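Slide 14.
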Amino acid sequence: MDIFLRPLIDELKELWVHGLDTRDAASENGVFRMRAALLWTVNDFPARSSLSGWSGQGYRACPTCNEDTPSMRVIGKTAYFGHRRFLPTNHHWRSNLQFDGRTERKRPPRRFSTADILEQLRRVKTGIPGKHPNYGGVKRKRGDDELNWRKKSIFYELPYWATIELKHNLDVMHIEKNVCDSLLGTLLGDPHKSKDTDNARRDLAKLGIRHELHLFEDGNKLMKPAADYTFSEANRRKFCRFVRSVKFPDGFASNLSKNVAQNDSRLLGLKSHDCHVIMQRLLPVGCRSLVNKNIWSIIVELSFFDIMIHLVLHLPEEAILGGPVHMRWMYPFERYLKRLKDYVRNAAKPEGSIAEGYVVDEALTFCSRQLSVFESQCKPLGKQSYVELDNNDRDNAEFYILNNSPELEPYLNEHKQELHVRLGEGCRNINEVHRTEFAGWFFEKIYAMHRMQAPEVTTELLSLSSKTNMVVSSYPACIVNGVRFVTHDRDVRLRTQNSGVSVPGTGQETFYGQLQQILEFSYLNGFSVVLFRCKWFKCDSKHMVTENNITSIDINGEAYKDDQFILASQAKHVFYVADPSRGPNWRVVQHVKHRSIWDITDDGLSDIDLLQHNSSSNFTLFVDLGNLQEINLLRRDQDVIPIVQPVTNASRPVTDDSSFLNDADEVELSDEEDESVEEYADEETDAETEIDTEEDDDDRSYHASDSD
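Slide 15: predicted structure.
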């Protein structure tokens, strides 16, 4: 690895010590001395081991916990237990025997400073890699004082590297995929990915915990009780049908219905972004009614505590050191690599194709920000039709346009003041009178000022004071600020969902609805305004419930039938997911935060969301973990499962603890003996292979939305 990194290290040293002359139009002489430094690296776990020099195998696999990594040997692999050490010393879980049969009295692992790490690296011996005659034809065994260090990383040649606290980021993308695969495999009882294996049950017996889950003999068969943290066959089908029924907005995620097996028994071929969407959006909603509350709240502590589950504990600490995760995970790099690969049109000259494609794309992006055709905030799509509105709908739409035009605010206030003088301060229906009379008053005032050639009467004000046509244009879809909206009638026929809308209220409330019509109102001088006509749901406590920061709404309750219009630029994109725990008419609201929106210019309006964010989730799940010790994990509604193995081969003594080791035992395993890390490495290889192809499907797009 160091051989391939040598050119990079030499260039980084030169950029830090000497710098490089760089052109800058803002400087006086047009040139400044640019210096650069390597901030951190972002890698999956095996690559992190290669770059940092700390082996991700054995009892000390965690690079953050270092030599204090809590681990023990179980059947066939190393497990990473002891996470209660991170709790306060007086927490009641520390004395609970349901975790590993012991009371936890150890303090949290130490935090090793940069000076401590340098002292450890000084003890690392420089050896010849691989099998060598000097070592008897085998790999050299590390000494106890070397811990898990294989080498001193070549990055330490950089003058500043030793002082950086966060050198190598744990990639959330790969960790999230592996945790999702393990969790879904266990919940769905997937025989290939479930961590609730026969050996895991034997480990429970050896630890003397969870007696209701121990294997037992029934004649000449070995029986496996059904666990409460796995779905029953009926619930497994319900969850898969729930995933199959979900419809996402355009560009938000792939079509997950294609990943559901035909018999609705498991999920197949999930990519990294699929796992991200399932973990962030679907799993908290879909399994809420399929397992009991305690299991749903914590997805319970299972026996699959491999190194991936342990690394999750260190992600908050890295967020404190490194900042928001969207700058420290692999998604932007994987997307950009895919984008560069798409530039290649001549396989014989890939570098030239990439350079040419990049220049063309940069030029088009620049033009899209400058040409007037892109200045419109709303672009209607589809076949144009015409709708004739009655007087009431037309008056409501016109007043909404006038009432939400910032340039009309002085006139709105002036008319209200005149009404207070004319009707008196105690008039209760002054707002209704204002709503009814303002359009006529505004027309007369503007045209009177226009006849006097008042300079403040602009063409826009003159057009707004005039009435719109009785016949308005209607469209099935439109793009607003780069976001596609589709009417509900058309949306039900598609595999995507783009008809959900929300608008903030005057207070803390938010209103949710479905887009019914897209109407374009024409004014004088060629001006037009696009309004959304929506069906608004009732948002009272009876029809909208927020629990654990998950908002569910009854879509049968309709409100504001006389106030259905909003400006297209005010609409925020949401989509709805079925809520199995509340009934067929309830939906869970999922907010969408779009990214990479380039097709409109910033016109300075602060109330329009032009610049979007890279956000991994729209809600945080809050749970109550107070009664964990009371959980019984035995499933009562399903029979025990026979294991097709002879008892003589499957049954082992369950009282011998000699094969169990903890972090206090002075035993060192060779790399070849640690099957858990080999298993993870295989999963990571599969994940990386999937990443290269995860955007080849026509239904997949990462250029519009994110759920990480």
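Speaker note: The CA atoms of residues 77 and 676 lie 5 Å apart.
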